[in-house]
Amino acid sequence: MDIPADTSDTLRNLILESELELSKSGISVIDKEEHIVYWNKRFLEIWDLREKDVANKPRKKAVNKILDQLENPETFQESLDRAYKNKDFESTDIINFKDGKIIERRTVPLKKQDTYYGRIWYFTDITQQTRREKEMETYTTQLQRMVSNRTQELIEAEKMAASGSLASEIAHDLRSPLQSIRNAVYMMKKDPEKFEVGLELIEKSVVRSLEMLESMRSSTRQLEPKLRRTDLNQIIKESVEELPHPANITIQLELDDSTEAWIDGPQIRRVFDNLLLNAVEAMPNGGIITVTKHRDEKKFIIQISDTGVGIPEEVLPNLFERKFYTTKPHGLGLGLSYCKRTIESHGGALMVDSVL
């Protein structure tokens, strides 16, 4: 069905007018002679105008009626003058009213095939939106301050936890030399003739304790190991000889003749102390600890095994993590993490194999 041309134009105009009236923005159209030729109700509401104030009125006359409402009327007038001096001018800016209302203003030229027909203005009330944004900004600032304060609290708590962790690690590792000193004192009291032997054992344990403390002090910086030519067999034997363990635990040594190794002796000794002590604690009812060592080309392979109940499979991946994690009823699970870090700093690897 064909629609007559005049009817089609009428429908288009009605649709256009309906759309403009439904718009949330105030809209006004100024022709090329700078007269107001169209406006919607929202435009009148925003500017508190009546139809007689704008109908076919020069835009300057209408503007004079609204300047008193603005915080910066001079700026408002300057932007209008720029728009009408330059037919290609387009802009978006913010207008602040004395009563607190905030309007976003936008203008574009009405042109077709380089012919200028006038200018259209859009005025959108963004008062509530701006207030919400400011409230959100204030809330965000407060939240950031709270997060900053909380972060600082967590940092302080982490420092305390780190201090506690270090203290616990020191206590964990000093148990072995302190037990050796205790055993030496007991032996000296029971048999005065072994005074010299006991005194030598005490001196060695004290020296080892001081080395541990120095290692602990520098561990926060994770210093590189001080490599020296060292008798590896002697370190293993001393660790075994000074290991505190009950009579129902037997220790077997199977060491090859290749003894010379470039290592940090005190660090590696501490590794053996930790591993052997873990083996003892894994066998509360007694058992056998076997220490084997052999050289394979350029590396040493050392194995410390025990006949304890073993480690659950789900525990193995976390065994060497540096945290308060342990499979034993006592202790903090700190020794193994040190062992892993130390062995890796020597270019080696620490592995575990266990079946529950």
Return the CATH topology of the largest domain.
Heat Shock Protein 90
Gross morphology is rod-shaped
CATH class of the largest domain: Alpha Beta
> Nearest-angstrom radius of gyration?
43 Å
Termini distance?
88 Å
What is the overall number of helices? 10
- The fourth-level CATH homologous superfamily of the largest domain is Histidine kinase-like ATPase, C-terminal domain
Rounded average pLDDT: 83
Q: Please report which band the strand proportion falls in: under 5%, 5-15%, 15-25%, 25-35%, 35-45% or over 45%.
A: 15-25%
The major beta sheet can be summarized as: 5 strands, antiparallel
What oligomeric state is this? single chain
Q: What is the total domain count?
A: 2
Which stretches are low in confidence, meaning pLDDT under 50 for 5 or more residues running? 323-333
Total beta strand runs:
10
